[in-house]
Amino acid sequence: MTRLIVAVATGLYSGLLPKAPGTWGSLFAFLPWYFMRGLEMPVYLSITAAVFVIGTLAAGSAEKIFDRPDPGCIVIDEIVGVFITMAAVPAPDNPLCWLLGFALFRFFDVLKPFPVNWLDRNLHGGLGIMLDDVMAGIYALICLQILWRAGEFFF
User: Fold this and answer.
1) Angstrom distance (rounded) from CA 28 to CA 151
2) Closest Cα partner for 132 from 98, 108, 103?
3) Running DSSP on this structure, what letter comes out for residue 16?
4) Is 90 helix (H, G, I), strand (E, B) or coil?
5) What predicted TM-score, i.e. pTM, was given to this entire model?
6) How far apart are CA 38 and CA 87, in angstroms?
7) Number of helical (H) and strand (E) elements in the chain, helices listed first
8) C-beta atoms surrounding 118 within 10 Å
């Protein structure tokens, strides 16, 4: 069971790659997202919600396995954050839109504007690990929509 928990929490071990595990986990998220992108929104959101619940449980357990609070190798939170960012992607077949979504999510995940920073500091365990990335994903989703549409308008 420990192996399964670690596999889920680390995004099939992508979070164990050297340097910048959050970036690796975010990049890994695009593999399942690529196959989810054409799904009807209720199905897409149901899968995202299921990954959030499973991820919350796995992240909390993995924290105990690694014996550290919110270790960087846990990237299931980044995966859910990317799923949220790309939920209503304005150009699902355009790699430039994917790149913008990735960059925006990483920007908000690293910068941690309020309330992302508050969630990161004040909530602990699996839920605390997950929720700051959910909020970063919401910020990135909103900005992706605005920037992409502004780009279409001006170009």
Assistant:
1) 27
2) 108
3) G
4) coil
5) 0.95
6) 10
7) 7, 0
8) 14
pLDDT in tens, 17-69: 999 999 999 999 999 999 999 999 999 999 999 999 999 999 999 999 999 99
Question: And the tokens for 92?
Answer: 């699902």
Q: Which two tokens stand for residue 52?
A: 């959030």
Q: How far is CA 59 from CA 9, 18, 43, in A?
A: 5, 19, 23
Residue 113 preceded by cis peptide, ω within 30:
no
Name residue, tokens 């979070």: 15
Tokens at 66, concatenated: 């690694």
User: b/e for 74-99, b at 16 or more Cβ within 10 A?
Assistant: bbbbbbbbbbbbbbebbeeeeeebbe
129: closest CA among 1, 45, 11? 11
**Cβ atoms of residues 36 and 50 within 8 Å:** no
Gap between the Cα atoms of 147 and 22, Å rounded = 24
Q: What share of the chain is helix, strand, coil (3-state, %, to 5)?
A: 75, 0, 25
Asked if 82 and 54 count as a contact pair (C-beta separation under 8 A), the reply is no
Place of tokens 């939920």: 87
